[in-house]
Design a protein that fits this description.
Blueprint: H1 10-26, E1 39-42, E2 48-51, H2 53-61, E3 66-68, H3 73-79, E4 92-95, H4 99-112, E5 116-119, E6 135-138, E7 145-148, E8 153-157, H5 162-170, E9 174-175, H6 186-192, H7 199-202, E10 209-215, E11 221-225, H8 230-236, E12 245-252, E13 254-255, E14 259-267, H9 272-284, E15 290-298, E16 305-312, H10 319-323, E17 334-335, E18 338-341, H11 342-347, E19 357-366, H12 371-380, E20 388-395, E21 417-426, H13 433-446, H14 463-470, H15 474-484
Helix pairs in contact: 9-12
Length: about 500
């Protein structure tokens, strides 16, 4: 069904109402925390403010969920993010369990003009899902997925993780594009665009989004779809968390065989340049059901490797012929390609996410992998025994590129690949400044090949670079921001700045 012509039927409305009622019934009536005194906090403009004990207690008493404060285990769990290089201390954390809790939290933040962060999975590399001295809205207790097999749709509450969506949907033979690490938050991934192993076949997560329920900066819960608040619906599909806190996502689902083919072909590291050049040509001609990702990397205590990874979700009897040319990319020294259960494949990279390490990432879109890019990438690759160092080209194109520019706020439709540079180091060894400096120097060479970046991988980009990345969509994004968040309450993101 074409999402731009989707008409929200009475059945869809009933599903949404039932979904939120179920959340409410499942919520534990914990009540608010006892607030023992005034709290020193930080406003959005960086100025200090004293939150009165009575005001914070009133907020806590209004919630089905909790306000948690420094000194508690719940606070420590909430404030920590996936990347331990980010170590922030909010003044208070709100943990909603129903959408109205989010409304009350946002109204309080607006009233006090608090610096406000929203956490779903906590994957943001820059640390935008926490803050020092402000309010963190931690959605970890606002989770749940409901799949409607008849309509091929799924509702996911705002704090759900991708693994929740994958498991529930695939149990009914359905999927949608949902990242590649199961403990990623649905909200953060989707609002920035939503790449994943199936994006070339089914489009980005936002291309499968039918509607959202969202709490905007005035604390009101709104429904947004192609037919209701359409400008807001357009903006959340690629505009990140600029426009509010999404409490529910409705996705279009697709039938798919549970068994997919995935794995890596390994080549001698000395052949990395020719493998990248081959991958550029092979990926450009690949069908939508095939994702091709060339990779080089080195980890402490190991020799550098060069891999070409694939995910194939088409008819199995076509796989052998389609993949056969890869054997000619170089000397294959490893081959781990096999049949996978899709849900298991989605979880297979979970332990590789470096929860005990500091991490830094830099990314940018390119139209194709050229011989010049392959040369400069391999020439600037400098492994170190003190860190993990890897580079890869995510595979875009396919269904992603067939959505017209401007149909959603996501601006990078013409990209063929997403070039990623990643480093990780033991956090006990320091802040990693020398490793970060290496990537930044590398990007003085690689950056000119790129055009824009994935907002979910925002690193040290300036506001001017963020504005430029939104391209021709920026003017419309600013108009929506002016309407729904004129004071820029939601600013910890690839920020769209209001002009009112």
């Amino acid at each position: 069904m074409n999402r731009r012509h989707f008409v929200r039927t009475s059945l869809a409305a009933a599903v949404a109402i039932s979904f939120h009622r179920e959340l409410a019934l499942a919520a534990m009536a914990d009540g608010g925390a006892a607030v023992s005194g005034d709290i020193k906090a930080v406003r959005a403009d960086g100025q200090e403010v004293i939150l009165k004990q009575s005001a914070v207690q009133e907020l806590a008493d209004s919630l089905r969920g909790n306000v948690v404060l420094p000194g508690s285990e719940a606070y420590e769990n909430a404030r920590l993010l996936l990347n331990p290089r980010i170590n922030k201390y909010p003044a208070l954390v709100v943990q909603p369990v129903v959408p109205n809790d989010v409304c009350n939290a946002v109204k309080f933040a607006r009233q006090e003009n608090l610096l406000t962060a929203v956490k779903c999975g906590g994957h943001n590399f820059r640390g935008d899902s926490s803050c020092d001295g402000g309010m963190q809205i931690d959605l970890s207790r606002l989770r749940g997925v409901r799949v409607d097999p008849a309509r091929r749709t799924a509702w996911a509450s705002g704090g759900s993780l991708l693994g929740d969506l994958d498991a529930e949907a695939m149990a009914r033979g359905l999927v949608t594009t949902a990242g590649s690490v199961s403990h990623t938050g649905v909200g953060g991934l989707t609002l920035g665009g939503g790449f994943g192993r199936l994006a070339r076949r089914f489009g980005l997560s936002i291309d499968n989004l039918l509607s959202v329920d969202i709490v905007t900066a005035d604390g009101e819960l709104r429904h947004a779809s192609a037919d209701e608040n359409p400008d807001l619906f357009w903006a959340v599909r690629g505009g990140g968390g600029n426009f509010g806190v999404v409490t529910a996502f409705e996705f279009q689902m697709h039938p798919m065989d549970r068994q997919v083919i995935s794995g890596s072909y390994g080549f001698p590291f000395e052949q990395a340049r020719q493998v990248f050049e081959f991958a550029g040509e092979f990926a450009a001609e690949a069908p939508d059901v095939l994702q091709v990702v060339p990779f080089i990397g080195a980890f402490p205590g190991t020799d550098p490797v060069c891999n070409l990874s694939i995910v194939y979700c088409g008819p199995h009897d076509k796989a052998e012929g389609l993949l056969a040319p890869i054997e000619k990319a170089g000397t294959v020294v490893r081959n781990s390609v096999q049949t996978w259960d899709y849900v298991a494949l989605q979880k297979s990279g979970d332990i590789d996410d470096p929860r005990a390490n500091g991490a830094y990432i830099k990314s940018g879109f390119v139209k194709q992998i050229t011989s010049d890019i392959a040369r400069d990438l391999t020439d600037t690759f400098q492994p170190s025994p003190a860190r993990a160092t890897w580079m890869a080209f995510g595979h875009s194109g396919g269904a992603i590129g067939r959505v017209p520019y401007g149909a959603t706020a996501f601006p990078n439709r013409d990209a063929g690949h997403d070039l990623l540079s990643f480093i990780g180091w033991p956090i006990k060894s320091g802040d990693g400044s020398e490793h970060i400096a290496y990537v930044q120097e590398q990007w003085k060479v690689l950056g000119p090949y790129t055009n824009g970046f994935y907002v979910n991988d925002i690193a040290n980009e300036t506001q001017a670079q963020v504005d430029a990345n939104y391209g021709a969509n920026l003017e419309r994004l600013v108009q929506v921001k002016n309407q729904y968040d004129p004071t820029n309450l939601f600013r910890l993101n690839a920020n769209v700045r209001p002009t009112v």
